[in-house]
Request: fold
Amino acid sequence: MSKTKSSSLGYPRIGKEREWKRSLESFWSGKTTIDHFQKEQKQLRLSYLNTQKTLGIDYIPVGDFSYYDHVLDTAVAFGLVPSRFEYEGGQVSDETYFAIARGTDSAVAAEMTKWYNTNYHYIVPELNAREPKLVDNRWLRLYEEAKSELGIDGKPVLLGPISFVQLAKQYGEKDFSQHVASLVPLYVEVFNQLAEAGATLIQVDEPGLAGDVSEEVWTVLERVYQTFAQAAPKANVLLQTYFESVSDYDRLIKLPVSGFGLDFVHGKEDVVNNIKKQGFPAGKILAAGIIDGRNIWRKDLTKAYADLETITEFVEADRLIVQPSCSLLHVPVSVEVESTLPKVLKEAIAFANEKLTEVVTLANVKNSEIDANILIESKQAIERLDQSESRNNKAVQKELAVSKTEDTSRGIDAQTRYEKQTKKLQLPLLPTTTIGSFPQTKEVRKKRLDWRKERISNSEYEEFIQDEMDRWIAIQEDIGLDVLVHGEFERTDMVEFFGEKLGGFQFTANGWVQSYGSRCVKPPVIYGDVHFKEAMTVKETVYAQSKTTKPVKGMLTGPVTIYNWSFPRTDVSEADVVNQIALALKKEVLALEENGIGVIQVDEPALREGLPLKRAKWDAYLNQSVIGFQLTVNHVQPETQIHTHMCYSDFQDIIEAIDALDADVISIEMSRSHGELISSFEDFTYDKGIGLGVYDIHSPRVPAQEEMERNIERALQVLDQRLFWVNPDCGLKTRQEPETVEALKVMVQAANKVRQQIEVNK
Reply:
């Protein structure tokens, strides 16, 4: 008898102990050879496949593993190498691959931005005059590797042509449909080779379908998949969507593919209603993403099974695949290594391996292979957490209720605040500053680890941190920066640091996820009502301020970013969690002000990335983000200058919301987007302080002074010179000290040069 199958859409790359990260960084630093690196990576890749096989997954993905990023993998497989990199055709070397991602002394790295509304960063492909060509069928290569090495008949995973082109920068004379058309023969070639090799199912990811899809895109997509069906008739294509429901369900299910993967977590109500109203096409596969692939909470399997029962009223059980809602790239590997979590919390958490176990359990119950009573335990574990004291803090809930009745604005207009702050701070034209963090050297990380493991005392650690602050205050003054920072040497991750000090948060020992390249983060778990316990940043900031007469910024992470970069609880609304965080941070802001700190930065780098995929949901999200930010800062004095920072481009559509935050100064990344962000301000008059990052901190290269001058001058064509700030793109935590100091010297020299030119031209 045919059975319901289990599947995975993708597996975490980093390994239980971040082995993948160490392998990459060892190769980049020259400590290992390319041959050794490739051997290590293969061992990891095969071990991940074997883990999924052992867990009992029927359809195991191949091709999801990457040296850096799956979008970059797709680009280089088709020979789409930006023209500034040395490439003469053929399979792209690993050196060129990493050069595209990280840049070189002579070539700027490709732009990097967020993968839809997640905290994962992808490398943006550049579609220029170069014609795409299949130079490496990596999917066939990895499919055959899994089969020969492990006996796994894997499910090749490709990023589909529609989403790939949507995610790319499109240059030249070709339009969207022409760029897609140039890729279609290459996909056909891949499909036919995979089918010939024996692949029984090919997963083609089209996450772009979960947003707002234009008529043009639908028309192109229908034509493309008709071509696939005709030109690769033996290929069984599963069209996979995730992160939201597909708006035009009726149009989707008419596509000539073997099946559809739908997200039954995000946009679940729409998905279920669509199936109930319009049914599901006979003979097609439905891959039901019923386990949340983006958050770490255990699923109530009794509810999940009820959903499966509803689905099978419309889809035969043998045409049903149970799977996570998306790739498990977004969650840690396994809970089994977490020995310090409170029992009530640990039993309610599921990482990648546990989620795959949930998938297999549901399929096995559906197939009557195990008793359905096994599902009840998950429900009971979740109920125990919901009933715990941590989720029932009456004081926090009362404060939240009161805040909903209050005016969250600053209460005084930006121009009046500007005049008061100008008089108080006495800053020069085009003031220079940094975003906050300075290099976290091996010594800094070692001292912090020694302190955490109690190998050194609190006083020894505090003395070390103060020495680092002394050194970097002196460096900043020597460079000539105008507004200084304390460097954040006491902090690990910008969200983790605050989560460790706020109530309602919990941290894992090894809950790492990939953010970009080898950069991994360990998101905190928001499991209870969030509350302020004690001052978090005052001691270090006040100490740094005591070492200089220049202003030192207080540095906080904002409530929206803390929410977006955490694993948040889902038993209450997103708005309530964000506002609980904001109310806790407000107490820290006021503590900084009371201790003489006159410039306070509340970073919101994740505000843009959290936008819902469908524009119909934007207003609610943006309004809530504005409220959360304002709740954090609305009680400071008008003389206190509030800064914020945001990452990445494509701000055109939310410029009004950025303005509504009412921060006195905002800094935004722009260097990798080659100044395109500036166009946002050509049609919108921004009347508050603003700094557009003048150099890219994600690359080790030190730009020439002339390059930074051009970036400043281009911005001043559309922005008021009295309000413009000069700063790097982002924090400098991941950079090496020599390149950081040199780049900041060049930045200050560039600012001074432009100041002089302005004075001459007066």
The chain has 26 helices and 22 strands. The first helix runs from residue 19 to 28. The chain has two domains: 5-66+77-82+133-389, 420-495+536-761.
